Amino acid sequence: MSFRNRLKLLITSVIFIVTIAPTKGQQTEQFFLSGTDNENTETWEFFCSSGRNSGFWSTIEVPSHWEQQGFGAYNYGRDYVTYGRSHEFADETGFYKRTFTVPQNFKGKSLELVFEGSMTDTEVKINGQSIGPVHQGSFYRFTYDITDFVNLDKENLIEVKVSKMSSNNSVNRAERYADYWIFGGIYRPVYINAKPQKHISHHAVVAEANGNLEVHLELENVTDAQEIIATVSELNGKSIKEWKTKANSSGSLLIKNQFENIQTWNSEFPNLYLLKLSLKDKGNKTLHEVEERIGFRTIEIKEGDGIYVNGVKVKMKGINRHAFWPETGRSLNASLDLMDILLMKEMNMNSVRTAHYPPDKSFLHLCDSLGLYVMDELGGWQNAYDTESGKILVKEMVRRDVNHPSIIFWSNGNEGGTNKALDGDFDLYDPSKRPVIHAHHRPGNDFNGIDTDHYENYESLLKKFADSTLIYMPTEFLHAQDDGGGAAGLHDFWELMWASKMSGGGYLWVFSDEGLVRTDIGNKIDVNRVNAPDGLLGPHRQKEGSFYAAREIFSPVKIFMEKLPEDFNGEIEVENRFHFTNLSEVKFEAEWVKYRKPGDPISGHIVVDKSQIQSPNVKPSEKGKIKIANLKMMDAAEGLYLKAIDPHGKEIYTWSWRTDAFNDFFKVINSNPKEVRESDLTVTDSLSVLSAGGFTLTFDNANGTLSRIQKPSGMDLSFGNGPVFTYGDQKVSNIETTEDGESKSLTIQYDGHLKETKWTIHPSGWVELNYTYSLPEGEYDYPGISFDYPESNVISAKWLGKGPYRVWKNRNQGTIDVHQNLYNDTQTGSTPWDYPEFKGYFGDISWMEINTAQGKFYIVSENEGLNVRLFDFYGVSGPTSYPELPKGNISFLDGIPALGSKLALGITSNAAVYGPQGETNKMNGTYSRTLYFYFDIIQDQILSHDKTNRFPNED
């Protein structure tokens, strides 16, 4: 079955599991009092105590947060202004009610009312009677036995009182004084479970990699000799084994068996089986039946060594993920959960931490099916539940989630939110005894042999891996506010983590910006200023630059070659960074391409030859070579792409290299046009004027800058006020002119770092700029030259180079191609989240086309390694936005700055703490570069591919 078809089947099956459609026979039957998710809701009557639309009965959709339905008031949890001043804190109470009639076939059955999640204190009455204690805790499934409270033959009334703030202060401190949006209301489904009087009330599975299977059962009302029949089948229904066990009384029962040649579960091959448990009476009649998908796998922490799955040492390429959607808060659906997991898998991640609370059940079902290791976290953001309430919530969390093979760790709270008295409670409900983790930002809080300390720097990583006997696996690192952190610095971190024995990998902070659609301010998205724009994706999962960089960095196929060597023989070194997959199972494709040229109306490239590559036999953690066979294309093509596709048909990554120096550019630049226009060179005391090819360039002799460009049409182009060197002042010391036929040149010499510029205007109209600068030994963020151009005139940019996203020195990943961006004013992490950002540093540029209200103009680089800066932007916002920018607003640079994060030792600008790539550019000596400009629209696509000399499949 194809990967696409598997996904369609998976979506259908998981939505079925989550919605829990009513069933017949002796399975647990379910009747929904609410809708099934945020897109399929039911209307209840509702009364809000304060805030918007309060003080009167109206209606509300369930499940939902009442803030998103227009009630009450908003609070971002870490609101220290209102901390301790409860009269200012949004503290509404919501009253819900609706009538319902129990289905006729529920008669004689045991009835259980289930709440999947309600914020926060929840009190329930049926037909005017309280059905149990108030539940405290927002993120947990809780239940009541309502068999004796409902009328089976007439209408019933359910009333629910939900208090946004808990009467238990430890619950408020653990959940609500936190660094995320907080809400109120019944936000996950509510339903009734109907089971036969004699039934299986709970089951917990231990399925190990060696084929050992244990099922721990709890039975209700089993008073005489009965029987459990257990069946394990493949998901397609093919039975593997069936066996029977006597069940003589209610209470606990252990059944077990051993399986041979079982396919184990891991993140790369998430093999699942179906376990069916049938409770039979003496006459072999089925009394009750439950089904569970199981995966055989074993988790082990070997202290002083590493984390092992099925006996194989693994490292977590992980990320933290809030369960969140802008329009509906933490009320989600299976399709949103699926989208998030597929995005993580696209970034080549293998693990997720459910920060900072258990997720929807559908998310875990999908992690089981698609293969994602899960750290399932108990609530507690820097403050812990008290022991009494924590014991209840640990039990609810573990009993709900215990059978998911994807869960390999339990996390007992976050950053000081750990109540160590609860550590032992996880094992009470998890017979497989998964490791418990303390997710901390304070040294000395290691547990179970794992140090999870948050936001270490590169030097402290080196020290930990060199000296510590603890496995280091940060549960948060490289905080990604705005464009900082995330994949900026990740290359150095991950290479060190991969190479270090004592590394268990780690979890980036965080998956997506927690931007909330505010119903009180015209549905605008609010990220609470600098508190919530921390994602590698935007609120609606818009992909930021770190998304694509992380995909390359985390690729389980590691390619080391950055440039094609001059003597390239087709061999490319590769390392297998899978844990369970041989590279012989990975498909490789090579594409030789020609790039679109300036003047072509479209971007991208043309594939001129495509071939399959023999997959090498390279085991996990070993190195080998890939052989590109069709080297005859080297002289004809302009680029080489290498694509890797995993055993499930998913693209891992595509690497790209240039193969040609683009000599066709310079043939055009130096050619004589059919119509040779008059050329001239004039120097006065204050101005120097060059003209050729219909263009006239005027320079200010006082500072050597370009002051005016007149095009053949007579219209001026407002590009000028440069070159200005990015460091220091410049003063003209000498001006010389030369003529070579119709080509006119102006050489300007300077005192200062910029030593010389030579402008040449050719008969073709192309302008050549050669410049030389000298720098004393030192560190420089952005060495190069700048010009001015009015940002308000700009429409779009097209370029051949890395893209489509902007780069930083320590996040320089990108695909070599012809990319095109429309102008936008997006600052990463802020509205309108219109990506890719138009403004920024763009790397490895061969040519760039700027489209403006004054027409197009072009820049071509004769030398490799050109970075182009476009206009004003920042990487991380705060009291002072970072980083500082060079002079001017269009710059041509031989180096660009790295980007830190807001947690770089508290110094936003200090990217160097994240590793060698974060260090400032070290310069010493004399540097030269040549740029070519064309200050008008290129006529007749003069640099497009020759239409008469195309490859056979180029069209």
TrEMBL record:
It is an enzyme of class 3 (hydrolase). It catalyses: Hydrolysis of terminal non-reducing beta-D-galactose residues in beta-D-galactosides. Residues 205-297 form the Glycoside hydrolase family 2 immunoglobulin-like beta-sandwich domain. Keywords: Calcium, Glycosidase, Hydrolase. The keyword Membrane does not apply. Residues 300-519 form the Glycoside hydrolase family 2 catalytic domain. Residues 58-196 form the Glycosyl hydrolases family 2 sugar binding domain. Its cofactor is Ca(2+). Pfam families: Glyco_hydro_2, Glyco_hydro_2_C, Glyco_hydro_2_N. Its EC number is 3.2.1.23. The keyword Calcium applies. Signal peptide: none annotated. GO terms for molecular function: hydrolase activity. PANTHER family: BETA-GALACTOSIDASE. Monomer. Belongs to the glycosyl hydrolase 2 family. This is Beta-galactosidase. It comes from Belliella calami.
